[in-house]
Amino acid sequence: MLLRQVVFVCRLLVLITVLAGLFTLPRLSVDNDILALFPDKDARSAEALADELRSAGYERQLLLLLGAPDMSQLGEQLPGVVKRLRQCDCLATVTEGAGAAVQLPVEALYQDYAPALLSDAWRERLQSEASETLRNQVLRELLTRPGAMSTARLTRDPLGSLAGYTQALRPPAPGLLLDAEGRVRLQVDGQAYYLLSLELAGSPFGVGVQASVGRALDEALQPVRSLPGFRQLHTGVFFFTQAGTEQARGEISTVGLGSLIGVMVLLLLVFRSLPLLFLAFTPIAVGVLAGLTVTQWLFGEVHVMALVFGAALTGVAIDYSLHFFTKRMEAGPAWQAHTGSQRLLAPLGLGLLTSMAGYLSFTASGFPGFVQIAVLSSGGLLAAFATVLGFFPVLLRKPPASGMPRALKMMLVALGRWQWRLVAVLRQPLAFLGLPLLVLGVVYQWQSNDDIRQMQTVNPELAAMDKSVREPLGGGQALQYLLVNGADTEALLQRLETLERPLDQAVGAGNLGGYRSLADWLPSQQRQRQNLILWRERVLDSGLLESLYRQLGMEESRAAEFAQRLGQVEPLSPEVALADIAGSALAPVFFSHEGRHYALVSLVAPVNERAIAAIARKADDVQWVDPVARTNHLLEHYRVRAAWLLALSYLMIALLVSVRYGARGACQIIAPPALASTLALAGVLVLGQGVSVFHMMALLLVLGIGVDYTLFLREGGRSSRATLLAIVLSTITTVLSFGLLALSATTAIHNFGLTVFLGIVLAFLLAPLATARQ
Amino acid sequence: MIRCLSALWLLALACTSLAQGVLEHPVQSDAQRERLKVIAAKLKESLPVQAQMEQRKHLSVLHEPMVSTGEFSLSAAGNMRWHIAEPFAVTYRVEGERIEREIEGERELITASSEPSVYGFFQVFSRLFELDLASLERHFTVYLAPEAESGRWDIALQPTGAPLNRLVALVLVAGQAGHIDKVTVTEPGDDYTELLFSYPERD
After folding, report:
1. A205 has pLDDT over 60
2. Among residues A88, A577, A706, B99, which is most buried (max CB within 10 A)?
3. Burial category of A127 from C-beta neighbours within 10 Å (exposed 0-12, middle 13-18, buried 19 and up)
């Protein structure tokens, strides 16, 4: 009676799923942004805002260097390349030249504030040099330096001090040259290149942006690529993510194809029926459809990682088909669909419940991506289960012509016997002593690794290219930065100015490559007033300007007029300057948040982390931010949390199954996967891997699938060849789909795959521990 | 007002007298191109060259031009020495893309990022002697006045776009046979600079 109701509910569920899925699928919105995988804790904190603004500026920049033995020929084609690039909406800006050679929007504004904007060097010169020396130096520059003397310069910046001020805003770029045609060239390893700076219109992590920018670059560069001896260098986050996507795509197609072919060949060999092969995949198809629909409804979108991993987890649903098929095969001509499904209801139902409990415990991890994976796979498994129970009894009503082939039977008997022998050895009292030893060994060998840099595999060719391009451009920006805040802009700028002395000392001591601060772009009103006082005193009151003008032969009345105008210069105010500064690509990030004003002090590598962090600690309202350390800390946090989660899942599953099997039975059910997980952990430790959150996630999977094995064995009885065959097939298909991930070149995915591989094979071998003694 | 007008008049006078209506003759015909090639070939033949130079800076706010004098030399390989002797001694040396400045025995390297305008000036100037029409036309409209008296020539260069047109309004180059006698650089405002070269060897 119960079965009939279950079947009815199952059919209804599948019907609704398919209808809802067909409605939802065309509206499916897939999120590509990898960053969305990370928990948005502190999303509203100033630090998160700073990160976001900073990466928007940094991640979207890319540099393209084009060179050829005949540079002038290449130069002629350059405007065409720029024009073609600009046609793509995927690029916000395309500029010839780079940072150091590009006119900054704010420079025009500075022209009227020369006396207020003094570099440290000029302040010192004004304080220490004699008037006459200063005047002669200025005269010499005006008379001998090409392009130095102009009316604008004489009347607004008579000392020429502004050049020193604006020069400090640009990173020194030793490799930058201007050629005869006024084009910016960069000298890299002794070879010349033209330089193009590009800004992406979207995040470089978006797969769509990657594709369209890649296409735009290909099309724009095609004509110059055919030039003899053409060479290209490039750097920017885009190229790293592009390489990462290509690698992932390559691995997915290899692993995916390999696993699909493997599974199909295996099923054909065992069941020798093409219709059964297709039927085996039907629950997965319905499952994936259901998973996507539920996820889309709950979250409004499906993350691409959830799509990949969630769909893969739903792939476990093939086990349901396998159990049905093997049961039918074992029964042979005596098969009765109704009785068969009745026998399968308990183990499949329990399997579903435990798997769902296992996956749904992912939600406790806190990673939004994993929450989606959990929802997608749980929903998928439920729909797959419904498909098997709702429709397989009807579709496979007819008994097969023959039972299980003899050869297969004998193989299973042999395998079963061998497996039992192994388990019998493990049941020796001596082996029980081995368990604490194993645990001790794991504890002794224990090492964790939460370093994100070691989990990502950065394309070494791109990394080398990045280094060789950044060096002649004045060094790379460090990932770490200082976040400074103040009650208003003036307080913030003053705070930034007090940081200059310790940071300069750090640069002098070799603890820092350099730094860039908003105070370089706009000194505080306080400092500007001090500058003005100094300037008026040393340039106007001392008669320096008057004598300079006289020497140049300027009419007295005009000289007096200009001097008066210069004497009336007021400090440049933030209201006037900040908008223009924000428009300069080289300017540091600044913003206001919840009534406070913030600015980033960006650091130039190399950075002695301890020394600079100490400077931040000593100063008020200054925060040392190390994104790598923070991510590592986060990964560590999640590794620990995942470990607790794992323990929690074991407990929950044990409680769940204890209802049916009692406490002792529950222990027997969870012992094999627990032991398999410990052994797998020992294995990866012996291989020298440090345990990370990815190992832990793999062990969660081992638990979910491993418990299925013990449950089926226990329900199916140890003598059931159908159950053993289903478990063998399940192990092989799991190894084919997840274990193959161990071939990945990305460390994190490799570790995940390897752990699943070891864990699942061991869980299979140890599964008979769940049943009574022979 | 009167001062301003007189300055403008002076400028106009200077320009017209120098240009001799050169702006009416953009280089278009093959004959003009051919003549430019001949001039370029003669310039090249005369290398290495040494000259006395005088620089006169005319600023709208100054009555008199500021004058400085010195020597200039250019080798066949394109290496240039630009030495100003009066009123201050400063020497620039240009070798390929490397530019060096010497003041009172101290040398410093000028890079495109440290002093873009100085760097740009010498890069363009040292190649003026190559007079390669194709490369000039990339950034300037090139004018060539008809031959007035035997061997004399006047060329004008007008920048066609940014960033050059922000710094320079017009460049006039006047010469005779294989020598440049005078270069006038007019800026977008009212300021302009004259560079006068004399060649002791030739005279």
Report:
1. yes
2. A706
3. exposed
